[in-house]
Amino acid sequence: MTANRPYVLILFYSRHGATRAMAERLAAGVEACPGIDARLRTVPAVSATCEAVEPEIPEAGAVYATLDDLRHCAGLAIGSPTRFGNMAAPLKYFIDGTSELWLGGALIDKPATAFTSTSSLHGGQETTLISMLLPLLHHGMVYAGLPYSEIELMATTGGGTPYGASHLAGTRSDRPLDEHERTLAFAQGKRVARLALALEASRREAK
């Protein structure tokens, strides 16, 4: 990552690794666009035990997101496994704490997108993506799904929706991303990066 260069924040929660694999594929798509970086960040688990405390830095993988990661991003991609057709509680908990960014309009006119993974083929992928879309609209972000110019949307037998990339992880959460899912996640990262650069330039010109 280059200092002072715009970046797409890829913010995700992953329990068994499938959503993390998608996040890494989106990051590859972002970094295929010259002039912009990908920043991978995760969120800590939510515990029902009030005394439970997560370490400040995870033992492995992406570090935890801060509000400043979100405040200064040029674009955003958020990812979560499905929980009964909705985003997982840890990601929702983090987003619920972004009121100060909303009050200051920090994310207005920045592009955003979402991705998800489910255990079953009809496990609520599209409703989960829509659940992640709602707070982004409240923040004034510009949502970018996957257009049907991505021909894999018409061929996939696993994940893939016009609302965003998705993945069928299987009942044991051990099915790897197939070629269609990999291609769509990469395309989604590339699209949000391209839009981030264009909208950032537009915001600079408006100042």
Give structural notes.
The mean pLDDT is 93. Strands 1, 2, 3, 4, 5, 6 and 7 form a 7-stranded mixed sheet that branches. The protein has 6 helices and 7 strands. The protein is globular. It is of the alpha/beta class.
List the helices and strands and how they pair.
Elements: E1 7-12, H1 18-31, E2 37-42, H2 67-71, E3 75-83, E4 86-87, H3 89-96, H4 99-104, E5 111-118, H5 125-138, E6 142-143, E7 166-168, H6 179-206
Parallel strand pairs: 1-2, 1-3, 3-5, 5-6, 5-7
Antiparallel strand pairs: 3-4
Helix pairs in contact: 1-6
How many helices? The count is 6
Order of helices and strands: EHEHEEHHEHEEH
Category from helices, strands and their pairing: alpha/beta
* Spatial gap, N to C terminus: 26 Å
Largest beta-sheet details: 7 strands, mixed
Number of DSSP-assigned strands: 7
Fraction in beta strands: 15-25%
Q: Any idea what the shape is? A: globular
- State Rg: 16 Å
- Runs with pLDDT <50, length 5+? none
Average pLDDT number: 93
Helix content: 25-40%
Briefly say what this structure is.
This protein has 207 residues and is an alpha/beta fold. Helices cover 36% and strands 17% of the residues.
Q: Main attributes?
A:
seven-stranded mixed sheet, 17% strand, 36% helix, alpha/beta, 207 residues
